[in-house]
Amino acid sequence: MTPADMQTPVPDLLNTCLQLADEQGQRHHDGLDATGRGEINGVLRAQSLMLSGAGQQCALNRYQMALVAAHGGGILEAAASERHGYRPLYQNVAYSQRFQPVPGACDQLFMAHNPELLLIAVRDPRPAPDFLEDGDLEPVPFAEGAGRVHRGFYHAAKRLYERVSTCLNNGFGGHKVLMCGHGVSGAIALILCQMLRHRDVQLYTYGAPRAGDATFVRAAQSLTHYRMVHHHDPLPSLPGSWMNTRLSTYHGHAAQSFNHTLPELGVFVAGLGALTGELYQHHGALCHFMPLVSGQESAHLMWAPTSDIVTQHALSRLVFEKVRDRPECDGMVEIGLGESLGVDSYVAGSWAAFQRSQAALEAREPEVTETEVRAVDLAFEHIGQQLRSRYQAVVSEVYAHSHEQERMINLLMHELSRLHITRQRLYDMRFKVPSVAEVYGDCVQQP
């Protein structure tokens, strides 16, 4: 189901006129014409994309920014958005307060502004494999700060920096910056944001791969970054040390399927991440979209798990199937990036999460049901039992090389620890009722 198939409930708490298209594509004009402009009580008005400028994450921005990442300026005009299968949220504002395109944009960059916000979407058209060649994968010093970054993403960010910096220095220096990007564009946007770190910048990424090393990530801790990952998208697991590993590494005890659990938690491959830490690290606050029923995105968790069984599910599934289906093969692990998810999957997931947040706020209830929590927790209980059995088997087995046994023991112990933390975060969600600000940000304060 796409956003165009659903009607958005407008909560009484939101004291703002949301201009929404109904199922027949008819617009409630309230004095505005088909382009979203008009005069009301002698004041020129317009429909403008609704976005919060508050630093706190909110479900509204997560959805709206996914649309911006997907369609750029295509959603600025309310009439234009009706041609697509999505439903942005607009508000009725004075004509001078509307979002307007910034001159000087290019194919890789969309920019728009209102009197308070500068909206930037990085939209590099190149496919992910173009950034995963050996030369681009090499980490290079981040000249504008600390640490090392992915060469390909860095060069792309540097090509955009001058254009964005010039814009900020010519009339937009006092604006808050909202930036977004999907896939490799999200990684480019992260580096670009750190180049602009002395500005007031908030970043929303969707399915972005890793872009910098641990030093870069630590230096960027002050950057407000909300990182959305879809459960079925392997691209966020790149680049990784597993790319230089042979399939035989994951034979035996490393690859495991689980019984009596949810399909979304059915496999685990130990060692996809290095125990001592990956060269490339993730930055930002994780928003992991995990469907609970295949094909039904309305039943989901939007959360921040730590277990690789959850966060590395897409990659684990692909590696597990390669090991299972071709046990004689001992080539390097290769994952076809045709398996990565397009931005539309992130729009749909953000929409489902936004709708659930709205409903929970209106009902004064948590965003997850007791039934969902029990189902996931029971799955984790079965997984924990099977991981402990695997651990005992590894301890009891005689290995030709003791360091291989020690490595597997440590990997299983590490995952059991992260599984415990993930279950605690699941429990905490049972009692968390979203606030108005967590759903709508500062939009509730607008007249």
TrEMBL record:
InterPro entries given for it? AB_hydrolase_fold (IPR029058), Fungal_lipase-type (IPR002921), Sec_MonoDiacylglyc_Lipase (IPR051218)
Query: Which SUPFAM superfamilies does this one have?
Result: alpha/beta-Hydrolases
Gene3D superfamilies, per this entry?
alpha/beta hydrolase
Checking Pfam families in the record gives:
Lipase_3
User: What region holds the Fungal lipase-type domain?
Assistant: 134-240
BP-aspect Gene Ontology terms: lipid metabolic process
Protein's name according to its UniProt entry: Lipase family protein
